[in-house]
Amino acid sequence: MMISFRAIAINTLLLSGSTVQSFTTIPSASCLAVARFQQPNSAASSSPTTRLHNNAPRHDVRGGEGMTREMDPEELKIQAALTEHQQNAPKLGFPTDVRTLIQYNHGFAVMSTNSKANPGFPGGSVVGFAPDDQGRPVFIFSGMSTHTQDLLADPRCSVTIASKEFKGAADGRVNLMGKVTLVPPEERDAMKEIYLAKHPGAFWVDFGDFNWFRMDEITDVRFVGGFARAGSVTPEEYKSAKPDPIAGFGGAIAQHMNEDHMDSTIAMIANAIPGLVVEAAEITSVDSLGMYVKCTRTPRASDQPQQFKIRLPFPRRVEQRKDVKDVIVEMTRAAKAAEVN
Question: In 10 A of CB 125, how many CB atoms?
Answer without folding.
Answer: 16
